[in-house]
């Protein structure tokens, strides 16, 4: 069985952390990486798609992805079809196109919005 990692922004330093995600009994979002656990901003947590873009960067839910035509999509989880999709204002394309474009940031990167 394949297990995918998660990524989120750490509360203590505002930087991204990637690792194994869990929630405490008190509902606190945590991630474990390199043997240490860190509290995360729950609104920034996203699961890995398991896919890599044309530069080899791993895609996570919430990433901004640029199509070769320069259109920008957001990686989202679609509950109705139980899979990741690339969404641009309600227009979805398959993640199979993912390898042809590139990740250009995240919806959580303040400087990119």
Rounded to the nearest angstrom, the radius of gyration is 14 Å
SS-derived structural category: mainly beta
Biggest sheet: strands side by side, in what order? 4-3-2-1-5-6
Give the topology string: H per helix, E per strand.
EEEEEEEEEEE
Give the tally of structural domains. Answer: 1
Number of helices: 0
Give the uncertain stretches in residue-range form: none
Strand content: over 45%
The oligomeric state of the chains shown is: single chain
The count of strands amounts to 11
Q: Quickly give the CATH architecture.
A: Roll
CATH topology, by name, is SH3 type barrels
User: CATH H-level name... which superfamily?
Assistant: YopX-like domains
Q: How much is the average pLDDT?
A: 90
Helix content: under 10%
Bulk shape: elongated
Question: How far is the first residue's CA from the last residue's CA?
Answer: 37 Å
CATH class: Mainly Beta
Q: What's the story with the biggest beta sheet?
A: 6 strands, antiparallel
């Amino acid at each position: 069985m394949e297990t995918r990692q998660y990524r989120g922004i750490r509360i203590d330093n505002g930087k991204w952390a990637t690792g194994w995600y869990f929630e405490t009994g008190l509902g606190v979002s945590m991630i474990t990486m390199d043997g240490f656990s860190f509290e995360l901003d729950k609104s920034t947590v996203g699961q890995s798609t398991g896919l890599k873009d044309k530069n080899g960067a791993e895609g996570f839910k919430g990433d901004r992805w640029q199509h070769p035509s320069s259109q920008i999509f957001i990686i989202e989880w679609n509950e109705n079809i139980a899979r990741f999709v690339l969404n641009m204002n309600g227009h979805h394309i398959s993640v199979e196109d993912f390898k042809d474009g590139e990740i250009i940031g995240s919806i959580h990167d303040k400087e990119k919005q």
